[in-house]
Fold this sequence. Notes:
- InterPro entries: DNA2/NAM7-like (IPR045055), DNA2/NAM7-like_C (IPR041679), P-loop_NTPase (IPR027417), SF1_C_Upf1 (IPR047187).
- By secondary structure, the chain is α/β, with parallel strands linked by helices.
- The chain contains 21 helices and 26 strands.
- It has three domains: 2-29 and 139-390, 3-Layer(aba) Sandwich (Rossmann fold); 41-126; 419-558, P-loop containing nucleotide triphosphate hydrolases (Rossmann fold, 3-Layer(aba) Sandwich), CATH 3.40.50.300.
Amino acid sequence: MQLILNTKGFNLNSLTQDSYDFLIESAQNYYDYLVENNLGYDEIKIQSISKTIFGLQLTLYSKLFSLEGLVLRFLDEEFPISENLSIQTSFYDEKHKILSLEIEESLKNQLFEKKNEIRLFSDLKFLVKNILDFYLSLKPLHFPTTLPRISPDIQALKDLENPPHQEQLEALEGIFSKSFCYVWGVAGSGKTKMVLLHALAFYLKSNLKVAILAPTNNALEQSLNTLIESLNNIGIDTSCILRLGTPTQTFAQRFPQNCDPLLNNKPNYKKSIQKSLLIAATLDTFLRRDELYELPFAHFFIDEAAFCPLIKVIPLCMFNKPITLLGDHKQLQPICLLNKQDSNNPKWQISKFWQYSSLFLESFFRHQTNFFKANPTTQINSPNYPFYTLTYTHRYGDNLAKLLDFYIYKNNLKGLPNHTNLFCHFIQTTSQENNANLDEANACCYLAKRFLQEKKNFAILTPFVNQRKLILQKMPALRNEECVFTIHSSQGQEFDCVIFSPVTLNYYLNDSRNPQALFALNVALSRAKKEIIIVCDKNYWLNQKGQFLNALIQISKPFSLSQT
């Protein structure tokens, strides 16, 4: 589906000085908010430290959420871990939770002598400061008006052995005929595996430089894992792909030729970024590398666009090159630490701009300093610019697709003929407090123990941090398995089986009357490829009339712990 707003009479100009002031104030205000409320600065506990030839290896107690904004504190001094600094990341082993750092020899020895004084922190303020510095540079920013440089024969793709279907073809036609558009698709709809794949293939065959940008390292590597393999399969040379920033060890071992040369071969870095045709990075990595601003990019592709903060995507408009957004605005929105009460406080109100996603890019240029008045909520329902909808998913069955369509998508979403197995394991709640349910936790642990023995690919998801903590307390062995997640931390992943622990009705986290909570439930359920098992008090949820979870439980089959 395509929707095009008649923009006659509107002028998407360059930003005014007032708009630059707005962006600068928003970044500074959010930075001040984090400082004043002691937010965005979290310690990551270190289990052990060992010395290597090039630096230090830190074994951590928990998995890193992000490799951006890491800071090493030694005695009273702080060392940001970043490219071109005295300490930088060489790789991260996500399975064993090992962070390998490259450190100058003299500093390495100094640190190791008093290694018990080393502490590791994640500092979100560092990333906010990067955005502030960009806007203070006052680089000219224009809503993209340049059309794509090539007009490939999209219809020729019909002759392929595995051709794109009609909706995917229409999305590709849009990408190569519009300066700005959005490809909207649910998980498994082919946004990456079909649409982005063939768009990139056309550019690479034409020897033109493009960029894929994503909000997180996890999202970036999920896309690249699929794209590099698929491009190889259709005969495209992938040695021209360069993934900037710190890779996970899994990615580095699988695609060493595509990893950032700045991490271990600095003299060849500038030659590599000039020679590479596809630059892939997180938005934070891209924006802090000034040398990328001079490269002749032909097109920008923003993956997980609904999760990308608008304030981090606006800088791409300095290139005035086509921008294509890919994502699903019916899932999670950008993470912003501004709480609801403070967002209504005039002192912090402008920080609310960090809650808006990249899907508001056209609206920002249209309304500029009147943006908040034109967009009172952070939820976009129907974009007022070209967008293309993919309504068939290969991720889950048509039974789940129909339910999600009725409550969430409302666009005739269709799924696989083979239905997703929907089960409900019913328990009677005897102990529940502080958003944690002991009976659900025990049942989840029982299932986990059995599924681990069966070597089943599964995850336990819950809306509540306290429930996740309780499950891990009851079964500490699950910490090493990295299979217990809050909904937010599960985004971008997929599992054969999802065990879902809803705990209790909460307006902000699982109450389908709240669109954001409904979208969070959508994320949880769409992680499953084959099977969903809801562990809950049946009577409690059947009394929650009109709720999405009520409807899901009604169509689920009973699941017994003795079931195989």
